[in-house]
Structure formats: C-alpha cells, structure tokens
Amino acid sequence: MADAMARALWERYEPVHDLVYFAPEVHRTADALGMRGFWMGYFALRAAPLGAVPPSVVTSCFYVFHPARVARALPDAWTYATPADVLAARLDALDTAMTGLFGPDTVGSAEFAEAADLAWEAAAAADTSGRVLAAANQDLERPGRPTARLWQGLTTLREHRGDGHVAVLVSQGLGPVEAMVLKAAAGESDGVFLRETRKWEQADWDAAGVRLRERGLLEADGSLSPAGAAVRAEVEALTDAAAERPWAALGTDRTTRLAGLLDPLAHMVETSGLLPPGNPVGLTKKTYSPVR
User: Fold this and answer.
1) Is 64 inside a domain boundary?
2) How far apart are CA 18 and CA 16, in angstroms?
3) Backbone angles phi, psi at 218, to 5 degrees
4) Which of 40, 75, 98, 116 is 20 to 30 Å from the Cα of 247, by its Cα?
C-alpha cells in the first residue's frame, strides 16, 4: 500500500518541483545571480543545499550527468554567488513562479497552506541515511511562505526518492548511461534528449547498449528484452519501496488528502507548456495512479 502511495505522490509532486528548472522566473533569477547559462544555473540551484562541494560530489549525487557537464558549471558558479545566496534566491523565484502560474488566490488559500504543511511533515519524516541530497534539503529551515514551504517540502521528497533510485541502480549494476539507455528503450524518455542534455557522446551511448545486450537486457534492435523489462520493473518497484517511509508516516488519509491538493497544481504545470519535450523523468502526463 505504501509503495503505491509513493509512486502516486511522485507523479503529483514531480511536476511542481520541476518549476525550478523550467519556469522563466527562475531563469531570470539565475541570470541575476550571475550564472552563465542554463546549466550553471541548474547545477547551482539544485546543488546549493550541499554547499560549495567539488564537482565530483555533485556528479556522484546527480548520477546521470557526464563529469564534464558538471565541471563546466561548478565550482565556477560559487564565484558569482554563494550557496546561501542561491538558496534564498531560489525560494524567492519559486514564490514568484508559483504565484504567477497558480494565481494569488490559489497560493493564498487555506488549501494551499494545508498542502504545504502536509508536504513539509512528510519530508521531515523521510529517512535520509545514505541519502545525501535528501539530507541536505531536509536540513534547511522551514520557510514561512506557503509557496516556499510547499516547494521545499516537495523537493526534499523528490531528492529522497532520487537518492533511493540511484542506490537501486547501483545495486542492479546499472551505470549512468546504462540506466538512461534502459529508460529510453522502455519508452519512458527520449534517448537523444537524455544523451545530449546529460552531455554523453554517441560512443558512450553505443557502448552502454553493447553492455546491456551482452547482459541480455536489450534486443539486437535496441528494444527491451523480456529480461530487460523485468529489470526495469524491478528498479521501479524497489524505488517505490525505498520511498515509502514519508507516506507511511503521514498515513493513508493525509497522504490521499495531499495527493488531491496537488492534483490541480500538477495539472497546471503539465499543461503550461513549461516542461520540455523528451520527458527526462519518465512521467506519464495527466495519468495519475490512484492513491491506495
């Protein structure tokens, strides 16, 4: 039951979290901080809770990016703005973005504040042992503004799930490129989009495909084999299981309530045109699993 809730809530909070990457208000804020281009802003905004750690740490935590993609952004980003400055600016930017997209009446409503409080409580209950990104986000102060509180709570939950997902990939012997090749072969994301945005060469992608075929996980034409489909299913099931504790702590009734409160927000993000084609996280748009 908790595993099903973990997946259902992810499908609802991921689009709201993703505003930090794609909302124009956030891009303008990153530019104002001095970030040089989208990717420097991306890595600074997402990695800021970790502090000014070296790029190798961020590469490890984020998992699927080529080290060169990270090293072009960090540590140079911290010469333009400190992690503390970035943390404050990202909450201001998300407040502006969410108010603009959802409307002042929505973000000022009792229901929105309720969603923020439920998300924060679930995030506080997340187990962060071995989960570096989740732990860094969980340790941040509770924001007073409901917009910031909701986004930061959902972000902690998102990174908690992501940390668990990386652990599952490692346990399955799936390196960064192999994981993306399997995701693309499963039809969950566009392979070219993943390869290019994560800055891997075609040769890296092809070599990962060879390794997966040798393991029997891909067919000769690059499609998933039955064994590959089984591994993908196992990865997702284990990821859901690893993400269950916040929802078990919140309880079925309040988790269901939070899902209902997030439904219209997720739908507004998904229909806003802000999210890019290519679907890097593999969400099924506007088709949410029931909360059970």
Assistant:
1) no
2) 5
3) -125, 145
4) 98
- Mean pLDDT across the stretch 191-201? 96
Residue 118 lies in a domain: yes
With residues binned 3-state (H G I as helix, E B as strand, rest as coil), the percentages for the chain, rounded to 5, are 70, 0, 30
Q: Is the dihedral of CA 23, 28, 34, 38 positive or negative?
A: positive
For 163-173, what is the mean pLDDT?
A: 98
Residue 236 has φ and ψ, to the nearest 5°, of -65, -40
Over residues 66-73, mean pLDDT:
98
User: 214 Cβ partners below 8 Å, 6+ apart?
Assistant: none
Q: Residue 170 belongs to what domain range?
A: 1-34+83-292
Per-residue model confidence (pLDDT) at position 3: 73
**59: in domain:** no
Burial of 166-204, coded b for 16+ CB within 10 Å and e otherwise, reads bebbeebebebbbbbbbbbbbebbbbebbbebbebeeeb
> 181 and 195 in contact (C-beta within 8 Å)?
no
Q: From 243, 236, 263, 7, select the one nearest 125 (Cα to Cα).
A: 243
Domain count along the chain: 1
**Residue at 55 is within a domain:** no
- Cβ atoms of 213 and 207 within 8 Å: the answer is no
